[in-house]
Design goal:
- The chain has about 190 residues and is mostly helical.
- About 70% of the residues lie in helices and about 0% in strands.
- The termini are far apart.
- About 30% of the residues are buried.
Length: about 190
């Protein structure tokens, strides 16, 4: 008879997420995960299969906890420019503040793993797709309300804003300078004119 699990799976995933986010996938060892989670190697393997399985769980947790929360703010009432400016301001503040060295886990995953890891590529594509859809819904609603010109393509703008968001995060890892990042947002918002 199998022994009952003696740990909270979500807490383990959250602890692993912190390590993967800080160190990257390749630089994270199973021993790092054992130390961070307090769960022995055998239990980690029994529950998640391997390091890659735990990483994919951490990526999914990140999407549900961080990405979904940020995108939900785009659904709140308010003017288009104000919501977009707020969204990008939050990206910048995290990127130059507490997340300065972390970046976005999904962007990091896109750069480190997606080119050669199909599961990681699928997770990144799903995350970017969710962001693009959120921007698209926002832009379509703004167009219907007369805030965005009928001549503008919500689909094209949504892709552009998704690329801008990810580009800001990469740029901030190299040079976390508020004025430079804000200038990118200023130009991005001009695309709405």
């Amino acid at each position: 008879m199998a022994r009952p699990r003696e740990f909270e799976e979500e807490a383990v995933v959250e602890a692993a997420l912190t390590v993967f986010w800080r160190q990257g996938y390749q630089a994270t060892s199973i021993q790092d995960l054992v130390e961070a989670t307090g769960v022995n190697r055998g239990s980690l393997y029994d529950t998640f299969g391997d390091k890659h399985g735990l990483f994919l769980e951490a990526v999914d947790y990140y999407r549900r906890r961080y990405t979904a929360r940020r995108l939900a703010r785009l659904e709140a009432p308010g003017p288009l420019r104000q919501k977009l400016a707020g969204f990008f301001e939050e990206v910048i503040e995290f990127s130059v503040g507490e997340g300065r060295l972390l970046g976005c886990l999904m962007t990091n995953c896109a750069i480190e793993l997606a080119p050669h890891d199909r599961d990681a590529a699928v997770a990144v594509a799903a995350s970017m797709g969710a962001m693009e859809k959120a921007f698209y819904r926002l832009l379509t609603a703004a167009q219907q309300d007369g805030e965005l010109s009928a001549e503008k393509s919500p689909r094209d703008l949504a892709r552009f804003l998704t690329a801008t968001s990810n580009g800001l995060r990469v740029m901030a890892k190299v040079s976390p300078q508020r004025p430079a990042l804000k200038s990118v947002v200023r130009v991005a918002l001009q695309a709405l004119d």
